[in-house]
Amino acid sequence: MGAAHLLCFCTHLFLFVQQSSGQTQKTPAEWDSRQADQFPNPLLNNTKCQVSSPMRICDPNSVLPSQTREESNNLLKSIEGLVILGDPSDKKCLCSRDCPQPTIIMIVALMKCLNKDVHDQWVETKEIAEKFRELWKLDDCSVILASANDNKKYYLNPGKAVVGFLTSNVTDGINNEVNKTFMDGDLESGIKLTVTYYSKALNDTVKGETTSQDDGVSSPPTGAIFAIVITIVVILIAIIVFAIFMAIRHKKRKQVKIPKDLKEKESSVNKETEMQTLKAEA
């Protein structure tokens, strides 16, 4: 019995030491770029990220309620598979990872707040997002969103392939659209808007290119065609208006000139008549 009690005591002691050691390595609540390697990888650690697998969101500080976190995670997964960025059959992928799955992946990293000694909070958030991309080996087809909730700072970082596919005007426009929502501290709505805008942009871009896939030339966007048509119509209207104006002006000039000639002729005839009358009287 003595040996059994000793074994039980040693087991409890080991578990106590292990738990104590785990508590000393607790996930920080305040972050900066130097601690980026301590932030759980959402692609590998669903336990610390507090979300079911497969993970697209990591919230180690419980910034979002559990149900909202799961809903946001499912929403982030819904964007995958919308577009193939390249031709899998020819291994021509815009992503740095191998085909045949070159699709958009969106990752969200939620931090409670930044360290108090951070001077420029926006720049620090940007550096943290870029550090996450490097540490987690995210490829060019990924979009990462890093947010420091208490500071109301966020950074939306699309990969090079995403920017190349949608153009920087579109990705910058999405950032401008969601900016106010994140700055107001509404993370749930901000994530929804981000996914919604990216989904729409991807679908619109694909629709704009499908009409000319056979010859390999992308058709111009509908907005550009409409602008060209409007420009042509405006130019034609301007030409017609100018032609009418010139015709009216020319007509007025003729109308002014003809009465003047007639008046001079009439004056000359009157003078000759008067001369003849005077001669006759003399």
Structure write-up:
There is one protein chain. The protein is an alpha/beta fold. The chain has eight helices and eight strands. The strands form three sheets. It has a four-stranded mixed beta sheet with strand order 2-5-7-8, sandwiched between helices. It has a two-stranded parallel ribbon with strand order 1-6. Helix 5 crosses helix 6 and helix 6 runs antiparallel to helix 7. The longest helix is centred in the C-terminal third of the chain and has 60 residues, at 222-281. It is rod-shaped, with a radius of gyration of 38 Å. 27% of the residues are buried. The model is unreliable at 4-24 and 210-220 (pLDDT under 50).
Summarize the structure.
This protein has helices at residues 2-24, 46-49, 66-78, 121-135, 160-166, 168-183, 187-210, 222-281, and strands spanning 30-31, 57-58, 86-87, 92-93, 105-111, 113-114, 142-148, 153-158.
Q: What value does the average pLDDT take?
A: 75
Structural class of the helix and strand makeup? alpha/beta
Number of helices: 8
How much of the polypeptide forms β-strand, as a percent range? 5-15%
What helical percentage do the residues reach?
55-70%
**Sheet with the most strands, sense and barrel status:** 4 strands, mixed
Radius of gyration, Cα only, in angstroms?
A: 38 Å
* Cα-to-Cα separation, first versus last residue: 172 Å
Task: Name the strands of the widest sheet in spatial order.
Answer: 2-5-7-8
